[in-house]
Please model this.
Amino acid sequence: MTKPSGAGVDPAQWTNPGEVEDLLLRQNYLAGGPLGMAVFLSAKLGKPLLVEGEPGCGKTEIAKALAAATGVDLIRLQCFEGLDARSALYDWDYPRQLLTIRMHERDRSDEALEREVFSERFLLRRPLLRALEGDGAHCPVLLIDEIDRADEEFEGLLLEFLSDFQVSIPELGTIRAQRIPLVVITSNRTRDLSDALKRRCLYVYLDYPDPEKEVAILRRRIPALAPALAKEIVAFVQRLRTEPDLAKRPGVAETLDWAAALLALRRDQLDPETITATLGFLIKDAQDLRALEPARIAAIRG
Model:
């Protein structure tokens, strides 16, 4: 869980999508058009925001920028195959429970001992439960990252959570959200999500940015980068993405990494040798790297 510093702006006080875009821009996140509108309505209607798109296009950064802009906690649930309620909702601290039972089994009744070991002090709060509890004054940002990596069974568990924003714990009762969190769910589209999940969310798709926007992102995130080099970098990356047989096209994250590397190398323009030597910042697939021979790189560079 990441807690940003500084005072933020309560989403309940947002008045229009433009205000949201300005707040995110202060965190160096450029959210224009449909995305700004979707974030604004997600907060106003208390509905989760489902963001799909190619890897590296800024889906996860939306939640980080939101948390920083509003000055609240970022609670992140990273999805993976086999994710279940014990990892996402809550679990019990079994070693401490067992130790407590052994220490007091002779001086306390079974009923009293059961009440103690299943009290809140033995409860392990996982991300979804932490997002519900909050402090009542501020709603946290809950990031459910890469939902497509989790099994379809986990989607069913998530549907119950998103419907009522509450968790039922048999030993303790029902815990309800004091304030509905801002929920951002991301997907790289490695599998289709259920219609039931999509119906509960506002939906937005993040595609690769156009050249002008990608240059603007570079200039905001790496201000020391020369304007001419920023344009040259973006032009190369944009052409590289159009190559038909690449298994993994570079996203904005890779563009930023490559630009930072070129800045560290003190390059003021692209040259074939530097591109070849640093191509691993853009291309993260061995077969793609082998396919990008010097002659092909030169053709892409133009």
Notes: Confidence is low (pLDDT under 50) at residues 1-7.
